[in-house]
Amino acid sequence: MSSMTVAAKSKRTNGTQKPNKATPKTEMTGGEILLTTLSDIGVEVIFGYPGGVVLGLYDSIFKLTDKPRHILVRHEQGGTHAADGYARATGKVGVVLATSGPGATNTVTGIATAYMDSIPMVIFTGQVSSEMIGNDAFQEADIVGITRPITKHSYLVMDPGDVESVIHDAFHIASTGRPGPVLIDLPKNTLNGKGVYTGSYKVAIKSYKPSKSGNHPKVAKAAELLNNAKRPLIYAGGGIIQGEASKELTALAKKSGIPVTTTLMGLGCFPETDPQSLGMLGMHGTWCANMAISECDVLLAVGARFDDRVTGNLDGFSQHSKKIHIDIDPSSISKNVAIEVPIVGHVKNILPDLTKLVKKTKIDDWKATIKNWQTVHPLRYKKQKGAIMPQFLIEKISEITKGEAIIATDVGQHQMWVAQLYKFNHPRSMLTSGGLGTMGYGFPAAMGAAVGCPERDVVCISGDGGFQMTAFELATAVEHKIPVKVIILNNGYLGMVRQWQELFFGGRYSHSHLAGGNPDFVKLAESYGAVGMRTDKEEELVPLLKKCMAIKHKPVIFDVLVKQEENVYPMVPAGAALQDMVDTED
Amino acid sequence: MKHTISVSVQHSFNALSRIVGLFSGRGYKIDSISFGEGEEPGMARVTITASGDEQVIEQITKQLHKIVDVHKVADLTYIPFVERDLALIKVKATPTSRSEIMQVCGVFRAQIIDITPKTLTIEVTGKKDKVDAAISMLRPFGIKEVARTGSVALKREFKGLT
Questions:
Q1: Could you tell me which CATH number the domain at B2-75 has?
Q2: What is the dihedral of CA A269, A270, A271, A274, to 10 degrees?
Q3: In chain A, how many domains are there?
Q4: Chain A contact residues (CB < 8 Å to B)
Q5: pTM higher than 0.90, yes or no?
Q6: For residue range A259-287, what is the model confidence (pLDDT) as tens digits?
Q7: What is the pLDDT of residues B124-147, one digit of tens each?
Q8: First and final CA of chain B: distance in angstroms?
Q9: Does residue A509 share a domain with residue A474?
Q10: Architecture (CATH level 2) of domain B82-154
């Protein structure tokens, strides 16, 4: 058995293998088969919410001893984001359980978020009894139909005897190839009816064989291009993190000396404190990363998908380069940008092959050019007396946590400042909704991460807008003593909306002002039994941050009143090419 | 350019929806689609004709491949293949026009499968062009209804004399 097969197998479990206590070939209810099978797979935790048609299953959760831990969330959207955060932080499959109808539809935003970022997740939804399907029964929704475009695969299980095999198949599909969410819809009579549990099902899906190895002649071609390049660049994405290939990428970069820029999803796959790191590229990327990708002569894209927030205007994107693209998903190759050397396969297997063939590049001129961009156009902001600059806050969080924390974010200005200024040195440390851009993602995702990685500090950096979208999950965090630190960059606005209104809509702040209705976040935290803190003074910031980080066994809300109308720079205006980016406000 | 894509797929309730949903969700246009049982029990064959530039068709075939239930995707466009479209055409027919309609049917080797004092229902099989031509020849008599299968196609095995 190759090491790859072992890696894929261990990755698809959500925990350590436990001995299965149920006797094989016994008759059980569908719900009992479900819990026993999850236990067989090694699932540690389910984020769920009960309801009508899943009452029988919840009764089994109550009665069975050998089963995963169940965490009661306060809204199914929070449950899906928590499972997603768990999956991103641990590399295991996240598991969600919801009832039919509204319970199921509440998972939709979370499923779409996971789908866009290729996160392995299995979602169980209850469904009305099979004879009622199609009758517009109470709490009936065609959730398989509703989620079809946002799931990698889905099942409607009509026979309790199929529950075991479907769950094994679903975990396999969710976690292999390009990962993604898989939904399993379970009618009430499937959950409550009896079927045979075998305990010995082996996954074999004829039509599903994700590629594993690379196309070796093309790896040689790629190495030749890189070895002869004068201005080479590595552009690394979330695929490196999903494919557990950070070490392999770092080895390639170190041997060749080629500089590395990462996407938002790739942050942490290459240490940002390394001199070869150019930081993030794209709309709010660093000046040097965007100039480097515009000027390079050979571009090696690995586990990235040439997203529009990365490329800017496609006509002006990296016009002088020959492009090599390594990806597990053939449909990502040449989708937006034509590729000279396409390599389909698993990054963890292909990168070492490529590393063997590359030589130390002689690119001193190129390095000097990059150095010059970094010196002339660093990330910078102007301090303002009497105000906490949001960028300063992120820098301090980065310093105090030494770049070792898991950071979850919502979407908008704070997310971009985190991406620019937090020095990520490890993979699986940045949890953010890159593709879908889901507000309300950060806090529940941080909860999921803290459940999966109790030994690490987990910080949710959010805004006053995003946090309020899922703030009620404070109840879950308090109940389960999940020590997530929520740091709110409170500027009283939907900051990124306001920034665009300022820059492109004549400063008409249409419905982007929040301060008038914001709650007292300290009191909000305290009312749930969490710790609340607040400051608007720069000199208080570091001591309070340290105090916040030291609190264990309880969630903390730290409301930081930052400068209200600050903008994220540098910036590539919508529709412009990367090399036309704007450095600062003036 | 028109492409004919043949897909071998699991005959599951979800598979056809996923295939059709792929086209609508990604903004690709289907010209015709046919779905029916395949060579083995539990399998289905889908034949899709779609127009688009090379990049779009490449994406369509790659995206079809990604559907978990899909076994095989073949773009038949650049290889020899056989293709048929079947149409049932109901035309108005009077005792005076009936023989003329039957002459047209003879030219297209079409069958008359239903007859009433006022109508004829005609079955015509062939490549899309032939079926189009038959319909246009029958139109002056007054077409009441048309049902077409869309293309069904398979790779041609016979290598000579094509």
A1: 3.30.70.260
A2: -170
A3: 3
A4: 144-145, 148-149, 152-156, 173, 178, 205-208, 329-331, 334-335
A5: yes
A6: 999 999 999 999 999 999 999 999 999 99
A7: 999 999 999 999 999 999 999 999
A8: 22
A9: yes
A10: 2-Layer Sandwich (3.30)
